Amino acid sequence: MNTIIRHLDDFRWDGxxxxxxxxxxxxxxxxxxxxLFAGGPKLGAELRYFEIEPGGHSTLERHDHIHSVMVIRGxxxxxxxxxxxxxxxxxxxYVPSLTWHQFRATGDQPLGxxxxxxxxxxxPERPDDQAVAQLKALPQVGEFIRL
Amino acid sequence: MNTIIRHLDDFRWDGxxxxxxxxxxxxxxxxxxxxLFAGGPKLGAELRYFEIEPGGHSTLERHDHIHSVMVIRGxxxxxxxxxxxxxxxxxxxYVPSLTWHQFRATGDQPLGxxxxxxxxxxxPERPDDQAVAQLKALPQVGEFIRL
Lengths: 147, 147
What we know:
By secondary structure, chain A is mainly β.
């Protein structure tokens, strides 16, 4: 890859394509993905930038691999496990293994965040009916989640 | 670790200690380190935030492991290989294996950047007299480097 990748403006980078959030799937809304560092064995991890437009959200899911997240634009909220957290610039979010999580741009600004993951990772799992019922029974979580 | 680590202000995070740049060594100036995500086998990589005060610099060094860097505060310049590059907010820097590199806060503002590395990595090597002579012979690089 190039030595320097210039930030152009507005959280876009020279030569870095703005991709669909996922290759397939429909359980998300108004979210894009840019791969900033593709990783590989020498790095061990991959760094992506996700941006959710106001009103949008990531997929409600869980997986064995962990997420290490840093907000770099705007704000919003996230569900991690059984709690909702407000998010602002430079806040860090740690999503442990097998923990339900969802990010939402709840206000009038986008929510842009870096997300660091292992290059070797399992596929996410979406909640089944029983898991949805359990999440909906939790205070605040029931109203927060988008399916 | 905690689910949320709040950004306090001024690129400091709640409960994240501001550390010496290195455990030992003297070939750097006015630079601090904060470990934002310590990594471990499930993540594969570690995310650190380095901040160089105006006039300061990182160690001129190289190593087998690669650096993936994102500037998030201020600006400055870096040497990667045989070229000097200006740096501004959100610019990305890829430092390949065994490539001489040094970061400097060359202006009147700090240079703050995220640096992503493999959890398993080799120790950096400093240039010997021959390598210093080769670097000093390069246009611009000779005046840029700090030993």
